[in-house]
Amino acid sequence: MSVPLNAQRRRVSIHPNNQPSGNTFSATNFPQINFVIARQPAFLLPKTLKLNGTFVLKDSTGATVANNPAVVKSATNGSTLNNRIGVSSCIDEVTIQTLNGRNLETIRNYNRYLASSKPFMNNSFDYNNGLNLDDPFLGSKSITTCRSANVETNFSIPIEAGMLGDMPLNISEKGFHGLQLNLLLAQNAAVSQPFAVYNFAGQKSLVLSDNNYLYELKNVFLTFDLVKPGPELFNKLPSTGLLGFNTIQSLHSTLLSSDQTTNLRFGCRNAISVTHAIIPSSQSTNRGVDSFRLAGPEAPADTPQAIRTVQYMRAGELFPYNFVLDSESEGIDNNPQAMIAEPALNSITLYENSHSSLNPMSNVGINNQKAFAGAKQEVGLPYPMALDPDSTFVLGVPMDSQKQGANFKDREYAIRIQSGLNDTTANSLFTFVRCRNVAQYSPTGVNVVE
């Protein structure tokens, strides 16, 4: 961001408001982290906001894990973090409030929201050549990142809430009057997970340690940049007005039958897009599997059941598409279901698809990946080198191509899914809604009006 000549940009570092002795947070002791960003005549640059600290994975005796992909599982070999979201898997809920407690945004299942969005906005080169500089647990395959758990690992990760987007946030009395950031940590069973090994035939095996491992976040602090305008510029800002900002809503429901319609009430006037992630309920918090994998409907768990058709509706009518998304034949043949997958991709990227990890291999396991564009290969990459197969399946839909959103304030949203489920296995359906909100500010405080 360019800074006006009569303004100053400075770096700020703050420590938790509820810092425990030893500055160590964990799921079992001190699972909540609170930061207070004081009211001051300045603009917060959300893209610069980072949560920093040290991640530790250890057993009940204090010993760290000893991952080694070259050997079989053991008591100490086979416990790491999800390679798509890394240390962010430790954060279950993010809440942003004003200093007087006015709630601005709450994202429940924040780690799962990132798992269902980050792979679609970053490709394998992004994971392996950039993202892992701030979080060593990020990578295109868990086998390449699992050794990071063997030692105490420093991290510097963004908080990817809807409100913390591109627009600077006025934290003065002519804006949000300061902010509070609350982070609720996730259960150990959801964070610690095995790493996956693929042989050259494409067969997958999970390496899971016999010992249970618990995580800790140590020496945690928050950094961000502020732009402080000069008195002349600040005095020209209006003392009352409206502020626009984005938020992420999270909802949870269950899929069980072969033809099921799920009705949800958003209460949002400007819903930009809706994204759904599916996983068997028995695996959503389970250290024996990847709890954040992006699976389709399964019955029983690990047995995929193809989706035949999807319908998105508002107030009982098809919306925003006035037709049924039918990919039954592609699902039967295990081919990419483009009519379903493309709207889902656009619900996350909002039509900016140049860095997605979605391809036939990651979507349905068709190994057509090449080492380089135009390479003369008769077969795809060896499975130990290729993207994890069947790892990027979501449902979803953008509400309009202009990114203005659709009104669901007093109208219900519904999704109808016809699949191979047979009433025997419960599948969790996680829904994430991107909304555009408006807040009214004045010297007395902030009020969300839309």
Core attributes:
450 residues; mainly beta; Adenovirus Type 2 Hexon, domain 4; Jelly Rolls; 2 domains; six-stranded antiparallel β-sheet; globular
Distance between the termini: 28 Å
β-sheet strand percentage: 35-45%
- How much helix, percentage-wise, in residues? 10-25%
Outline the low-pLDDT stretches.
none
- The structural domain count equals 2
And the CATH topology of the largest domain?
A: Adenovirus Type 2 Hexon, domain 4
Task: Return the CATH architecture of the largest domain.
Answer: Distorted Sandwich
Q: Helix tally?
A: 9
CATH class of the largest domain: Mainly Beta
Using DSSP, what is the number of strands?
22
Structural class: mainly beta
CA-atom Rg in angstroms:
23 Å
Give the mean pLDDT.
Answer: 90
Q: How does the major sheet shape up?
A: 6 strands, antiparallel
In CATH terms, the superfamily of the largest domain is Adenovirus Type 2 Hexon, domain 4
